[in-house]
Amino acid sequence: MSLLGWCQWLQHTFLATTITESSWLFPVIEGSHIMALSFSVGLIAIFDLRLLGLAFRSEPASTIMKQLAPWSLAGFAVMFVTGLLLFMTQAGKAYGNAFFRTKLTFLLLLGINAAVYQLKFYPKMMGWDLAEKTPAGARWCAGLSLVGWAVVIICGRTMAYEF
Amino acid sequence: MQILSVLQSFADWGPFVFLRDSKYGMPTIQSFHLMGLTVFLAITVAMNLRLTGVGIRKLSLGSLASQLKPCAMGALAVLITSGILIFFVNPAKYLASYAFRIKMGLLACAVSFHFVVLAKAMRSEPGSRKRSVNFIISAISLTLWFGVGWAGRAIAFFP
Description:
By secondary structure, chain A is mostly helical.
């Protein structure tokens, strides 16, 4: 089965049609997807500000990260589940949509960006934990994260206008 | 009706017409509205987590409030500006919407509570008050702000 065929099949599964046909399930799932932005992307953005030296300069970077990460991850869990359900209901249309494809591409890039931070900078974090000016690479990761998430939000919002 | 006709004449102003008629005008402004929501709600969530002591315990409430204030105010400015633009693209639609009226009512309550009660609570550390007081303040703050968000979403689904 082709990827498009799979998307069309997904859109006609029992779960997808139940959500589509319900008058309240779709709004609740979509609303949750948007409200969870405040935990997932919003809290990550606060940590990015610390790495960029724009906030909490006198706090250890690791403290900001450890204090925010669990809540951010919980937010991402909600984003992932609700996003998957939203995709199911419109999979056939989303497949060919340029904004959806751009969104997925940037999610992948953001994943790589986060992995680079975790593997390359996180293990050595103790060395510059209290520094107001973090390593250039870590600042790059933070800047790319902010830009990347903005693109994801813009593409996510815009694709809804095309369905 | 008088108000609507005045608002409608605003809505016929060139830039609003351009926004309404251009393909990516509305998606762009809606995107900024969402980015503002993301940042503003995240800061509100962080402050409330600290206020109740449910999370973020290693940072002081004072530090959170002072460090995040410029961002919160910037995000609120983006939210309000983009919100006004969205409204003027179709004032008749929004004025007729119950969800919109509820959203504006909740917004007025949320902003008042934020700058009067929550701002006052942020000036002293949570330990100086009864835990239950912190929880009540937090519950009202989060209910009002997320209420504004949900009511905003409801405008699209229940016009």
